Amino acid sequence: MHTPTEVMAGIGLSARPGKSRWPARMDLAQSLSGLALGLFMWGHMFFVSSILLGYDAMWIVTRAFEGYFFFGRAYPLIVSGVVAVVAVLFVLHAFLAMRKFPANYRQYQLFTSHRALLGHGDTTLWWVQAVTGFMLFFLAFPHLYQMLMHPGAIGPYESGSRFWNGNWWPLYLVLLFAVELHGGIGLYRLAVKWGWLQGDDTNAGRARLKRAKWVLTIFFLVLGLATFAAYMKIGRDRAHLPAETYTPAWVQPAPGAAK
Q1: Residue 202, SS3?
Q2: In total, how many domains does the chain have?
Q3: Which residue, 43, 47, 90, 182, is the most exposed by fewest CB within 10 angstroms?
């Protein structure tokens, strides 16, 4: 007479199956990709908002990313490379995050009843993050594709024309709110999850993080809206003019100079 353990071993099963480490690895990959994308989002906002400092400031930032000040000329394909990396991270992060979405209507009902019963602020933030993440899956790719295929069409005049003449402004406006809400909540939840910057008092630390999260979200939304308005104004003011690439006067050849 064989024991249950011996029977299971005989057919290739274990009475105590080993625990897979893949869920933990995927969770870590989701956290790292989310952190990278969140920090990139903040950096990107500062870069595009350079237009608020003037046309020349934005031109300098744009050409710096194209290697102009290192190679002596601009290589827009460098921007395409950065966009490609961001797109891969975005797809990876979305794939990993979808594991935690409600998979069917029954799971959705259970979650909504659970959220209503608890009335927990962080649970509501997770739901906002899930909804904005779903929105980004459809809104971010057109922008990424445009930057990937036309990396040289970035500049004061070019970007303003894209906003106004290209009618990209509705997508950019919704994208601004979706990105800032999703990214801000995501970075806050990462800090809570991994115990960053919380101190000895967890509850007080979480409250501080949440205040900081909303301060940063409001700051970047205001900065984004100001930047949005600046590009809209440039595009509107130049709508009747021929398409032109902006170049600062100090890099243009002097009149009569040999070509």
Answers
A1: helix
A2: 1
A3: 43
97's tokens:
């995050």
Can you give the residue range of the structural domain that contains 146? Answer: 25-240
* Model pTM score: 0.83
The region, left, alpha or beta by phi > 0 then psi within -120 to 50, assigned to residue 241 is beta
Kindly tell me if the per-residue pLDDT of 195 is higher than 90. Answer: no
* Cα–Cα dist 99/46, whole Å: 32
Closest among 228, 124, 132, 140 to 178, alpha carbons compared: 132
58, part of any domain: yes
CATH code, 169: 1.20.1300.10
User: DSSP letter at 52?
Assistant: G
Whether 13 is in a domain gets the answer no
**Helix segments in the chain, DSSP class H:** 4-10, 22-48, 55-65, 68-71, 77-97, 105-118, 121-149, 156-164, 169-194, 202-237
Amino acid, single-letter form, for residue 51: I
Contact 207, 164 (CB under 8 A): no
Question: How does pLDDT run across 101-123, given as a tens digit for each residue?
Answer: 777 778 777 877 877 776 667 88
Convert the pLDDT of each residue in 160-187 to its tens digit.
999 999 999 999 999 999 999 999 999 9
